[in-house]
Amino acid sequence: MDFTESFKQSLNLCRFSPDLKYLAIALENAVVVRETETFQVSFEFKQTSNIQSLEWSPDSTLVLAANFANGEIVIRDVNDPTWKRNIREGPAGLMNVKWNPDSRSVMCFSDFQLRITIWSLITNKGYYIQDPKYHNKGFCFREDPPCFILAERRECKDYIGVYKCNTDDWKLINVFQVDTVDLDNFALSPNGQYIVVWENCIWYKIIMYTLDGQCVGNFSIDNEGLGVKSIAWSPSSKLVAVGGYDQKIRLFNNHTWTPIKELMHSSRIKDTQNLKIWKEAREYSPGLGRFIVKYDLIEKPIEVPLMQPSEMKPNPKSGVGTCKFNANGSLIVTLNDNMPNCLWIWDVNHLNLIALIIQLNSVKNFYWNPVEADKLVICCGNEFVYFWCGQDQGTEIIEVPSVNFKVYNMSWRSDGKSILMMDKTRFCVSFITDRDNSELSE
Prior knowledge:
- The chain is globular.
- By secondary structure, it is mainly beta.
- A hairpin with a 5-residue loop joins β31 (320-325) and β32 (331-336).
- The protein is built from one helix and 41 strands.
- 1% of the residues lie in helices and 52% in strands.
- The strands form ten sheets. It has a six-stranded mixed β-sheet, with no helix packed on it.
- This is 12576_t:CDS:1.
- One of its GO terms (biological process) is microtubule anchoring at mitotic spindle pole body.
């Protein structure tokens, strides 16, 4: 892997443009736009207050920077330094801001879930949607046909609203009540046909709807403790993975909408066929005069390190907090919060566990390569990045060459050729080269 030098950043606000030509970085109250090929500064601007949100327009021409505390939004054109738009929200406040798919209007979420304001950059007019349930979840866009889907709360009842979302023509297409006491969130299938809605974590309940409000399936468990914690759709929209506080993943298909398999995160791993377990280890190297880290391929059975959640703290570290399908839907990786040092990789076709990765430190983030389906990258808040590249190619550990650089977060570029890595105050980019694939080891 080849690394760039490290650059300063604030709040992990580093964003590749959708066309991959630029990288926008927030540094306190300034935005710096660099070219991704040379990392030379192409454009920069400042606003009066520190930046808390940074977003590219979908067409990669406009950059939005916002401060929620004072309701200030600044939008600049990377191709025209003279073009500028300022938006300042009034007494209702500003909690979130998002681009609309047309790249010529923005969506502003007010405080106290009062309303959403859609501002047109062409006409400078606003369109209002009342009573959104949340400002940071419970909404999404569908591409074809383009529409905006929103969780709403009116008269103590939950609804899903579907809106036509043209630049200057927002219109309510459909609204329907959902059978929940307190809707926690929903997830739209990749093909845009179905919505999975789930209850607040106090109840284990999920409901499947079409966009016209037809209920096509539901599933609930009584007296099972806390409920749903994470949900992920497969890329084909044929499967839904539901992670619960009971440390199980339940897989549903889009025909019967019933569980076809329960994947259990057991603390004792038996001698399962085709399962490989990689465990990170530190070893002193006399030749280098320092400790090195590596992966050991260990034998089964083993006891997985287990952390007991505290009963005195809210949001207990318990249950499957994250589940992610890979690019072609053949694998799913899960993180059970009771076992924060472990990643579980499951074969979707055979519905079995094929890999367990045990880290020395708790896992901070992990992401599938968006193009190469078998490549997973992991960070643990230290100076290393970790790779799993399938059962045959194995694992690899790479040390970031920047001094005192601790990787807390990262993201793949959409073409899968580089990784943006961030510590608390800096970032760097690593480029995946062809020789990387031949250096992996078991």
